[in-house]
Amino acid sequence: MSRLSFRTLLVLAGLVIAPNLALADSVAVILDQAKLLRLPDRVSTIIIGNPSIADGTLQAGGFLVVTGKGYGTTNLMALDSKGNVLAEHTITVSAPTTALTVYRGADRETLSCAPNCQRTLVPGDASAVFDAVVAQNGTRNGLSTGTPAAAPPAR
Kind and range of the H or E element at 34? Predict the structure, then answer.
């Protein structure tokens, strides 16, 4: 009888302790896309382990917008005003699945084909391709804000 009582006591102790442990949930985000995450009430501080992989912006109503910044895995912790951990999440940022990858020898180029194929910025692409896309995007974005970037070099 004492053996059964001891097992019952262990099970009951587990039921009392387990809900108080912060469990790490997994969140998958695509590079350069955002995902909405619902956080527990009373969150006052967000900590992201590696902000070059993911970024987070706390919104009203306990929502967090998580944006994929670079490939990899990092963690996110949500704390209350006393520093207690309310939630933990593992964030994994991966490549878009709709992209087309072209290899020319060891050089790689990524295209976004929706509906027409255009070069896109993806870490790991050949430096010449990546740098050209960065320059073109910088010029385009500068023109849209009325502050054009320096003209590209003549060819």
Answer: strand 34-38
Segments making up each domain of the chain, as ranges: 20-94, 99-145
pTM: 0.65
The CATH architecture of the domain made up of 20-94 is Sandwich (2.60)
Per-residue pLDDT reduced to its tens digit, 7-27: 554 455 454 444 444 446 899
Q: Please name the residues in contact with 112: beta carbons below 8 A apart, sequence gap of 6 or more.
A: 96, 98, 99, 100, 118, 119, 120
76, 78, 84, 90: CA torsion to nearest 10: -30
Q: Are 47 and 65 in contact (CB under 8 A)?
A: no
